[in-house]
Amino acid sequence: MTPLTLLCLPYSGASAMVYSRWRRKLPEWLKLQPVELPGRGARYGEPLHTDMRRLALQLAHEQKATLKAPYALFGHSMGALLACEMAHAFRSLGYPEPVALFASGTAAPTLRAEYDRGFAQPKTDAELIEQLRTLNGTSEEILANEELMSLTLPVLRADFLLCGRFAPIQRPLLKCPVHVLGGKADRATTEQLIGWSQETRGSFSVDMLAGGHFFIHEQEAKVLRVIKDQLEGHHRRHGLMAVG
C-alpha cells in the first residue's frame, strides 16, 4: 500500500531542514517530504524567487515527477501561501488535489493587505534583522553573527518580497479540506485565520495553540497531533498502510 505523503513548505528565511525532526515523530503510514526551495539548503546555488505563483508551479512540476498520490500539503507562514498555490498548480497540471491543506501561522490569501504591509519593497539589512528580532525566533547571538547573516538575509529579503508582492486572483476554489493552525500570541488575527475558509468548498477547521509566530516549534507535539488526527480519517477510509 502507498503511504500518504506530507509535503512541507518552509517559512521565510528557512530551508526544508526545519521539518527534519518530524520524520521520526510521524506514524509510518505518513511519509514526510520537506520541499527545498531554490536558493537555500541543497539548492543554494539556484536563484531566489520573488514570484509566488511561478515558484509554486516550478515546485509542482518538480514534485509531480516522483510524487505518488495521495498527498497532503503543510506550510507555515510564507510556506502556507506557497502550499496553497502549489495545490492550485498541481490542479492546473492535471494532478489530483491534496487530500488536505494545512495552513499554519499566517493570514489568509485574501486578507493580507495589512498583514504584509511594507513587505513589497526591498528592506535594508538592519530592517530585516529587526524583523527577525520582533518574531522572537532568532537569538541575539545569531543576529550578531555577520557571516551567518550574510547568508540568511538575501534569502529573507527575497521571501519577504514573495509575500509582499503576492495578490489573490479569481479562480475555482479548492475542493480539499483546509486546516488552519494559529498561535495565540502570533500577529495573525482570528479574522485573518478564519479567512482561509474562503479558499475551499471542502471542510474547514482552526486550531489555536499557545505561543507566538514559531509555535510550530514551541508546540511541536501538538502540531503533529493535529496533522495526524486530521489525516488519520483519510488513511483509514482509503485502506492505506495500517501501521503506526
TrEMBL record:
Domain Thioesterase as annotated: residue spans: 5-230
Record GO biological process: lipid biosynthetic process
Pfam families reported in the protein's UniProt record: Thioesterase
Gene3D superfamilies: alpha/beta hydrolase (3.40.50.1820)
InterPro entries linked: AB_hydrolase_fold, TEII, Thioesterase
Highest taxon in the source lineage: Bacteria
Record family assignment: Belongs to the thioesterase family.
Name this polypeptide is given: Thioesterase
